[in-house]
Amino acid sequence: MSEEKSKPVPRPGILDIAAYVPGKEHAPGVARVYKLSSNETPLGASPKAIEAFREAVGNLERYPDGQAIELRESIAAVHGLNPANIMCGNGSDELLGLLCHVYLGTGDEAIITEHGFLVYKIQIMGAGATPVVVKEKDETVDVDAILAAVTPKTKMVFIANPGNPTGTYVPVCEIRRLHASLPKNVVLVLDAAYAEYVRRNDYEAGIEIVSSNPNVVMTRTFSKVYGLAALRVGWMYAPADIIDAVNRVRGPFNMNSAAISAGAAAIRDQAFVQEAVAFNQMWIEKMTVALEAVGLKVTPSVTNFVLIHFPDVDGKRAPEADAFLTSRGYILRAVKGYGFANALRMSIGPDEANRGVIEALSEFVGRKS
Ligand SMILES: *Cc1c(COP(=O)(O)O)cnc(C)c1O
């Protein structure tokens, strides 16, 4: 007989997981607060998405469409894909978790990178597998380091492209080189949460690579440029066998009706997306130039956020900068958990917030320590 326990005990490894800590939201005692800590858009959602959300209120007693057909067909139409290869999720976080649940188990390894998104590690460990962390190079995913870490136990590789919190990206030729050298049984997950923002000719979110291979998945989100973070809408584009496997374990009604309708309306409003991207492009350049002029180092970003590095000088480090900015009502993201103890991540906000951060940081840097 097995030893009796006095209370329920989670599977081995579960209590080793460090729970995800979201970006701060509050600045106590400050009248006007700008939350620049979670890479949300300052432009809100498309008015058409908001209208669709309102309409969903009329049918609250009915179960949602478990296949999310309206949303999948809208995504497929905009991106030129087969809806059968699209699965939607309660945020892309849900899909990342389901993929781990399906492809990982005890004794398996999954490769993540030094500054990669913390959700991967949580989901890998949640599935009972071992996260293998590889170094990045110049704050960018290093394909050779990933390949060097592959073992017979490797079942998945996770890359955020562009990366969060770095804002850097891996060109498509490098992604192809990585894929070509991975064993055929390894699932390569390309998390393209910020793809809409990227303006680089050598970048691809992953659609072509997924289309022509059985072991690559691309995940996308409506939480960033589409401004629907509150509704939790994500999707993945994957080969038929992967969709089939994940479909067997996903909750039958994992998407709510409001999310399905608002998401479908949002993706059909590409004019709104273009405006948001143009606004961001203008500010990401301005912000980088202005912060460098103040004497701070900024990692070159293709996204809607910048990683700002502080000097290694008493009183001028990231924690002090964080406190200073918070006292002015600007909430940035501390990124120690991502391996950057002396940096803060700032999402591009509305004009007045971006100007305010530049002003506050020039004062902070010039301040006597
Ligand atoms: C914001 C973000 C996501 C999106 O997650 P959702 O669950 O869709 O809100 C996914 N990956 C990365 C790297 C992100 O920064």
From TrEMBL:
Its EC number is 2.6.1.9. Pathway: Amino-acid biosynthesis; L-histidine biosynthesis; L-histidine from 5-phospho-alpha-D-ribose 1-diphosphate: step 7/9. The modification N6-(pyridoxal phosphate)lysine is found at residue 224. GO terms for molecular function: histidinol-phosphate transaminase activity; pyridoxal phosphate binding. Gene3D superfamilies: Aspartate Aminotransferase, domain 1 (3.90.1150.10), Type I PLP-dependent aspartate aminotransferase-like (Major domain) (3.40.640.10). The keyword Transferase applies. Residues 33-361 form the Aminotransferase class I/classII large domain. It catalyses: L-histidinol phosphate + 2-oxoglutarate = 3-(imidazol-4-yl)-2-oxopropyl phosphate + L-glutamate. Transmembrane segments: none annotated. Keywords: Amino-acid biosynthesis, Aminotransferase, Histidine biosynthesis, Pyridoxal phosphate, Transferase. Its cofactor is pyridoxal 5'-phosphate. It comes from the Bacteria. Pfam families: Aminotran_1_2. NCBIfam families: hisC. Belongs to the class-II pyridoxal-phosphate-dependent aminotransferase family. Histidinol-phosphate aminotransferase subfamily. This is Histidinol-phosphate aminotransferase. It comes from Rhizobium favelukesii.
